Please model this.
Amino acid sequence: MPESITITDNRTGSTVDIPIVNGGVAASDFSKLLPGVWFYDPGFMSTAACESAITYLDGENGVLRYRGYPIEQLAEQSNYLEVAYLLLNGELPTPEEYTKWSHDITYHTFIHENVRKRFLEGFHYDAHPMGMMVSAVAALSTFYLDAKDISDTAVLHKQVVRLIAKMPTLAAAAHRFSVGMPFVYPDNSLDFCANFLSMMWKVAEPRFEPDPALVRALDILFILHADHEQNCGTTAMRTVASAHADPYSATAAAAAALYGPRHGGANEAVIRMLTEIGSVDNVEPFIQAVKEGKGRLQGFGHRVYKSYDPRAKIIKRTADEVFAVTGKNPLLDIALKLEDIALNDEYFTSRKLYPNVDFYSGLIYQAMGFPLEMFTVLFAIPRTAGWLAHFKELLEQDSKITRPRQLYVGSEERNYVPIARR
Ligand code: ACO
Model:
C-alpha cells in the first residue's frame, strides 16, 4: 500500500487521505478539504515549491549530485562547461556535442560595445561590481529583442549560450572599470576559465598565460557553485520565469538575490571575520564570544546541510593546490584553527554547525588576487548555468505563475480621514 497521511478537519469531522509522493504531499489535496485555509510557511521552511530533476541534495548526509552525478566525481573529472551542459540538458555531452557547445560558448563571449561603453563605463567610479553585473545582465535583454520569444527552443538556446558566455566578460569588465584599467577583449584561443583570468589580469603582454593550477582551481570552484537546487536566487529565477519574463531579466533578478549578504556574500564575510580575528591566538576568545551570542561564525552552518558541506571538503583540498602557486594565504592558519576548535566544541556539534562552501572559497579567491567585492560576482558566473537550467525546466513543466497567498494581519476596514482632520 502506498504511504499516505490522513488529515481531519475538526470543525466538520471530514477527512482526506493524501498519498506521500517523492517525499511530499500535494497541497492541492489539502485545499479540497480546507478551501480558504492557507498553509502558513514564511521562508518556505517546509514547502517544496516545485518538482525538479536537476540537483539532488541530502543535507543530513552531506550529499550533492547534479543530474545524478556525485559532486565529488564532477569536481575531480569534469569541467565547468561540461557541467553547465549537463545541468541544462540532463545528460553529459558526447564528444561532438561538447565540441559544438564549447565552440558556441567561446564565440559568444564578446559583448556589444555599447554595453561596455555606455552602460558599464557610465557607472560611478566606485560602483560595486555586483551591482554593475545585475544591471548589465538586465540591460542585455534590450540588445537581444528575440529573447522575449521564450517558447521557441532554438531562440531560447541562443540566449542561454549568450548568457553563459558573456558573464565572465561582464564580470571582468566591471572589475577593470572599478580599478581604472582598460577593458580586455576575450581571447578565443583560451578555454572558459583561462579566458576569464586573461580578461581580469592581462596588462601589456601579447597573450596572457594563466597558471594551469589556478585555471583548474577556478574550474573546480565554478563546478561547485553551478547549482544548488531551490536556494534564494534560484527561487527568484523560477518566480520571475513563471511570469514568462525573458532569460536576461530573470537572470538579473536571480543575481540580485545572490547580491544579498545572507546569500552570496558569506565568503566575503568570512575574510572580514578572519582579518578581524587577526591571529591564531585570538581564535579561542573569538569562539567564546560567538558562543555567548556575540555574532556568528561566518562560513559555518547551513539551512540545508546538517553535516559537513561536501563542497567545503573539495574546496579545502583545492586550497592547498592554489597556495602551492600563490603562497599560503596568511589567514589560512586562523581558519584551520577555527574549524578545529568548532568541530570539537559541543556548542557547534550539538547544533550541527559545520563549515559550508564559503568557509574556504574566499581564502582561495583572495590568494588568487580577486578583491573582496568580486567574490559574489565569482559566484554569479557559474550559477548562471544552474539558473538557466531551472528556467528551462520550469518552461518545460508548463508551470503556473508563482502567486502565493498571505495571511492578512492588518487593520479592519476603516474610514478615510481627510488630512486637515488628522
Ligand atoms: N555561528 C554560530 N552559531 C550559529 C551559526 C553560526 N554560523 N549558525 C547557526 N548558529 C546557531 C544559531 O544561533 C542557533 O542557535 P540557538 O538554537 O541556540 O538559537 C542555531 O545555530 C540554529 O541557527 P538558525 O539561524 O536557526 O539556522 P538557519 O538554518 O536558519 O541558518 C545560516 C543557516 C543562515 C547559514 C546560518 O548558519 C548562518 O548565519 N551562518 C553564517 C553565515 C553563512 O556562512 N552563510 C552562508 C550560507 S551558504 C550559502 O548561502 C552559499
Remarks:
- The first strand starts at residue 4 and ends at 8.
